[in-house]
Amino acid sequence: MRIETAGELLCPDEIEFKLVSDLIKSRFGLVFDLGRTGILKNQLASRINELSLITYTDYYHYLSYHPDRTPELEELARQITNGESYFFREHHHFEILRDHILPRHHARSPQDPLRVLSAGCSAGQEAYSIAITLQEAATGTGAGGWKVDACDIHPGRLDQARSARYGEASLRTCRNADRRIYFEEDGNRYRVRSEYRNKVRFFPANLTDPAVADWGRYNVIFCRNVLIYFSDDAFHEAIDQFTRCLLPGGYLFLGHSESLINRRDDFEPVSLGGHIVYRKKAAGPSSAYS
């Protein structure tokens, strides 16, 4: 019997479903519990039908052994992760970056660029928001400038990010004046201007992959509204990776529904601009920031 939607599944074998959900958890660190199980079943049903398969077990075998398992895993990642984003989401974070972190960094290390990572960058709206913020703040200062790296698990989203073209929904918090300054019209879409997009580097990455330790060292990491979907183990694996990548005293920005309080002892919550961000603890007074 074919699977069409979660509501039409006829007594599916929960052991078979668990095979696939456990694979998703181990591969991507994502969990679908309580009210989110039905969402996952609908998404899996779509892929099962698309591949002309029948059961969850068929799909599990496809993901595990089929010659085309790699592109299918990439498509599955796109289906089950929330790629919705827009420019300057949680605007106060960019104000903190501009008004507090960038000036402190340039006061301490005037010749060194501020290095920022946008982790789980989706289609690039966050990364370009960071670039715009830093470019506008650093212009004319004569300081060491900035560099932005950005990564996501889904290659298709990274392709969109590199193209830097967006629709109205992505610009919904941008004023008309900002649109004219930061974007150029491209048909019925908007493209980030070259002075901002050319300074952002995009690359594919799984946040729970140990290879993240080779990315580089950063002063700031943004990872917002991503970890809320992670299992507890995957959450700590990702934070472990960020700890290794962040320089002592570096800052981690999380989404409003995410917190490290009472979960980690290698970061301390600090208030900047009236909002909480997380600073990597340093062993002594040589912290990158104070």
From TrEMBL:
Gene Ontology terms describing biological process: methylation
InterPro entries named among the record's database cross-references: Bact_Chemotaxis_MeTrfase, CheR_C, CheR_MeTrfase, CheR_N, CheR_N_sf, SAM-dependent_MTases_sf
Catalysis performed (reactions): L-glutamyl-[protein] + S-adenosyl-L-methionine = [protein]-L-glutamate 5-O-methyl ester + S-adenosyl-L-homocysteine
GO MF annotation list: protein-glutamate O-methyltransferase activity
PANTHER family, alphabetized: CHEMOTAXIS PROTEIN METHYLTRANSFERASE (PTHR24422), CHEMOTAXIS PROTEIN METHYLTRANSFERASE 2 (PTHR24422:SF10)
Domain CheR-type methyltransferase: 5-283
Entry EC number(s): 2.1.1.80
Keyword S-adenosyl-L-methionine: yes
Pfam families associated with the record: CheR (PF01739), CheR_N (PF03705)
Superkingdom assignment: Bacteria
UniProt keyword terms in alphabetical order: Methyltransferase, S-adenosyl-L-methionine, Transferase
Protein name per UniProt: protein-glutamate O-methyltransferase
